[in-house]
Amino acid sequence: MRIVGRAAVALGGLAVLVQIVYPLVHGSTKTACTAISVVAFFAASLLHAISVGGVRAAAALIGVCVFGGLIVEAVGTRTGWPFGRYEYAHTLGWEVFGVPLVVALAWAMMGWPALLAARRAGSVLVGAAILATWDLFLDPQMVRDGHWRWAPTRWPKLHGIPLSNALGWFVVAALMMAVLDRLVPADASLTALPAAMLGWTWFSETLGHLVFFHRPSVGVVGAMAMAAALGPVLRRPVTRLVARPGLRGPGAWPVLRTPVLRRPVVPVVRPVAWRLERVLGRKHSNPMPQVDPKATQRSGSRDGE
Predict the structure, then answer these.
(1) If 11 and its partner were Cys, which of 44, 90, 176, 291 is the partner (CB 3.0–4.6 Å)?
(2) What are the pLDDT digits (tens) for 117-126?
(3) Would you give the DSSP letter of residue 145?
């Protein structure tokens, strides 16, 4: 699993590098950067899922986010539900059911870190909010690049995107997070790579719209909304006490760990605490008989006689 984890980090780094290049290129090269960054990010999330949750976690991610995303997007383009009426421009490569494959992979690439962040915050709604607020960056950018377009609607719009889209994203993402949370092993939690990718996504999207795409309002609104969604994750303590599983005795006392790196940082002093626990446990479970001082005095006087 260590090799898988290192491969996930390498692919995450590749996704970051391609996204750095993205605002500096134009035309077909920019479209290629879009596809490459999504595939690399998705592969990083998938391999990370394998490294922390095994094949079961990876299968759940593919089934819920990739296939689920394809189905929802296919229904959306045909019926206008749940996002509103829109259509793809057939510029993003291979399509399944009329939906670009990279769109389904994008659901999964961000769905995985959003799930782990939601677990850290204690609510799947946090993961749904992260995905929905991320789309406040994504949709205006993709519409501007000509990858899809929205039909006229009575819904109020934000940066040219109907608000029905944000509502639909939140509902669909909440369902995805709830199902993933049930299927993915409980010990899969937020570690350095998904946390870094979430942070990078927020930073790069904000910087891109403020500086390179010349759409400061998109950058400000998206940055504030996504930061608010990430707030419950950031409010949790940086460190926590967790018990070492499968151990008894002095070794079972907790060690101070960072939930991001999941490595011991400062061992708690265990021997004294363990002895104290044994003394206290003996006192409660097998109390010593009470000694009557008067009886002791009478016993002493008899011995003297």
Answers:
(1) 44
(2) 999 999 999 9
(3) T
